[in-house]
Amino acid sequence: MQRxxxxxxxxxxxxxxxxxxxxxxxxAKLEPGVVFSTDYQYMCSQAGQNMIIDAVxxxxxxxxxxxxxxxxxxxxxxxxxxxxxxxxPYMVEIANIREQCSWVHKDMPTGTEKAIILAKAAIAKVxxxxxxxxxxxxxxxxxxxxxxxxxGIQTALDIADAGYPVDxxxxxxxxxxxxxxxxxxxxTLDCAACILTPKMVDAAxxxxxxxxxxxxxxxxxxxxxxxxxxxxxxxRFVNEDVCTGCGLCTEKCPQKKVPNAFNLxxxxxxxxxxxxxQAVPKVAVIDPDYCNMLKNGKCGVCAKxxxxxxxDYKQEDQIIEEDYGAIVAATGYNPISVExxxxxxxxxxxxxxxxxxxxxLTNAAGPTAGKLxxxxxxxxxxxxxxxxxxGSRCASCAxxxxxxxxxxxxxxxxxxxxxxxxxxxxxxxxxxxxxxxTPGKNFxxxxxxxxxxxxVHYIKGMVGKVTPENGKxxxxxxxxLADRQLHIDADLVVLAAAIEPDKSARPLATMxxxxxxxxxxxxxxxxKLRPVESPTAGIFLSGACQGPKDIPETVSQASAAAAKVxxxxxxxxxxxxxxxxxxxxxxCNGCSSCAxxxxxxxxxxxxxxxxxxxxxxxxxxxxxxxPAVCQGCGACTVACPSGAMDLNGFKxxxxxxxxxxxxx
Amino acid sequence: xxxxxxxxxLDKASALLASGEVSRVLGWKKGEFAYDVxxxxxxxxxxxxxxxxxxxxxxxxxxxYLIKETAKEGKVLVFLKPCDSYSFNQLLTEHRFDRxxxxxxxxxxxxxxxxxxxxxxxxxxLVSAERDGDNLVIHxxxxxxxxxxxxxxxxxxxxxxxxxxxxxxxEMLGENGDVVDSHRFDEVAELEAMSEDAxxxxxxxxxxxxxxxxxxxxxxPACTCEKCVFDNPKSxxxxxxxxxxxxxxxxxxxxxxxxxxxxTDCGECSRVCPQNIPLHLLNRKFIYDIDRxxxxxxxxxxEGSRAPLVNYKTEDPxxxxxxxxxxx
Amino acid sequence: MQVNESNIVANExxxxxxxxxxxxxxSYAGADLAGNNRLAYPADIKIIxxxxxxxxxxxxxxxxxxxxxxGVILCGCHPGDCHxxxxxxxxxxxxAMLFSMLNYLGIEKERTxxxxxxxxxxxxxxxxxxxxxxxxxxxxxNKRLEDLRCKQ
Lengths: 664, 328, 152
Fold this sequence. Notes:
heterotrimer, A: alpha/beta, Rossmann fold, FAD/NAD(P)-binding domain, 5 domains, 5-stranded parallel sheet, 34 strands, globular, C: alpha/beta, 4-stranded parallel sheet
């Protein structure tokens, strides 16, 4: 029989105003096993905690019931108190008589009556509590960053600087991500490459960083501190260690008609290519869908011209397996497909482009070498219409667009408009917007400059229709402020497409058991207080995979994620949650129902020998839970028909005791 | 017409026993009365010659016995009617016995009688019954022979047979059949169409006859727990006998829930119930609900398939929608 | 005497006993938020904290009814938001099946409910509890699951 102490907190008047705390303490005294019961003004205060410690010693208490605020608030506090008093921290139960009683019920009799019942339920439960000890697990001091954009690079650099090895897995042949494709960056107008490429080089040269490019994560097992990851590195048919990146092959390859994805397919490269001049690693890659040698065995030019002998047509995908202590998701974003927005004629005219395509058209390394030319005829456009919020803030366009604000479009559109007016003052620039959103340091000033200094025509209203006609784009739009319809003959229409999480994020989230919102952005552990952690321990979030972000915000969040990773990796061991599932082997049927529902793969089966009553032995298949992997959800306990599987801290008989106490 | 006779099975079993391929045979054994056929383990051809029966009362499903029998030395021969073979697969899916230690002979079936059905047809002086072509011939002490159409007088589980296909076997005797388009959910639908009050009255009448003999549980090929929660003091619901009026209801709901998605609808529970409670209507309700809400699923049709209650789809209907549907 | 006792009870206003199972991560936090915002709901509701809605065994629910509960409500994270990724999907199937079965046995379907309440939905929590308690109250005491046999 337990010796239970009950401690009823007044929480000043928060509880005491609608609950007769003294009556609760008195009622608790009548419950079996309760040897001490009292009330006090602030149980969580030092004096309150000392009172508990003294009571434990004086009355030889084995179990504690604290009637106070929510366990989400102070359960950890009182568990520590119990430990300080010399009893197992898991011998504490909290009756939530504040948030779920005194604060929601107005009159004293009702509140008191309910508080007594809640106290009784907690007493009934603590009777069945057993001391629990959290298991310890070692921390692998290596981090994995998935995604090699600016977010992933920054996170990796910061972790590496703290002295821990980091691997970056990037699905493209080079790191750099979206930022590498940008021309200038707002609000300072410094060139993206000038600030990004040094960081890329830093990452490549940092001895703690390993870049695994042209690769993807295939399997994730394990748990915080002990992840085991399988990475598939795709064959690039070029030996990465040997290739010098001289680029000769990319000039000699006879297959010239390969759409250049880096330039958003606005021009072509060869079947063997280096994505861009500053690529890291600067190593050629062969596109097997276009290479004549790989397709039909006829060619081999690149191998002939390569003086380093780096070409390897027989190269195969490579599987890399590695252990990590922490994983950072930095999978980034993509503009949505605007083809579904027929009204803007994106698929009908080459001169209707997305903002990212516009970036390439103004980029010195882009398909036009930085000259702003119409894709259809190579002429200089004289009238440009920018359309904002294409697919953003669009609750009604389900299936096409997104409900959320993509956040970065207002600013980059202002940047584009300003750059055009700066380089080509003869060009008329119109920007159609719903609202212009410019919160951020120097952001509004930047936008005001576009309007006031550069004379960009900002028009509140949406473009209704774009019609290609005689080499022009007829833009029909409404000006909401002037309340009139506008017709503009434009040479170029630029769509600020909404951004969405990269398609690889959803399957990755499933592998990581990290949760996502309905838009496939990763969910943070707490929207305000834990913004760079996933609710799944050991998984961290960096950059736009968590929500739309501009570069400064991405970089600060990337460093924040790194700080969290460093905090984790600096520990030698981690204490687990002892409230994990446990199987009673004598009752287990070995039916695998529990393993089917376990989201963590924590359950395995072993053949075990049992001594039977007649002294024979029998080998049976039984479930075995890895307490380090189990997170304690309890799904298995209900899937188990025999009741062999139970959950520490929330055992079947404990919950039923609570039910009984409440329904009595 | 049953193409497989007692002799066919006997010959097969004797040969397998003689060759040492199997060391035991799970078969039907004659009981006190002719309609009283019980499952038995035979260890020799002589024993079988003496007591083995295969007639219209050979309905018992042997799959569950394999758990115990395969734990012993040597291989065991089992005869699987179509419904038994579903249970067989389901047990394999749940790793309940070692397939290597079984020699399974599939036999076709077009309906088996059970004692209570025949007793109901001839309440006084029942001696024996047999099949003659399309007829059921019941021999009685006082009224002579009663001749009735066989198919129409089968027990519910066979009248609403779901499948004549043996889905697991090493060797098939006779011709294998197909999955049948049955009307097994009609009764469930009828109950669903009734008012809550009427349904309550129906089940109150049925379940209050329960004597908690546990026969339904003991015969059920899905109820194979090493220790049943109702026998386990730690479970909190353990109860050997009825201590209050609620017990039997709790027992039947939990039992049905525990086998939901795993029940192969073999109908053994209703067959063995001494109080004639239509227990299969509980299991079929779950099967019907699963089929309607999560897609058709037949437990045991495929070895290794994932049972619907340990599975999910993100677009599953909400509980409230399922209730509305069932209410119609 | 028992008869007198039940007469006394009958004269008083019927107050249902309701058990609410709430998952630790979403609904229990939602209930706490309802408290923070002082959103009242009937005291007939008593909450039991579980790590995840998928921890709720049908046996707990039947036990509650057996011991005299008049209604049982189960709250968890919205589908797709489970802290353990998939727990509430299993809950959804299990409870849909269990509650459908209870209704099949003639138990009023308003006595059972599954509701998804996030940690941010304090108002929804209070409104849901208010509504559920009213519906259960309107049904009157639970007799069907408590007393089945006609053993007069």
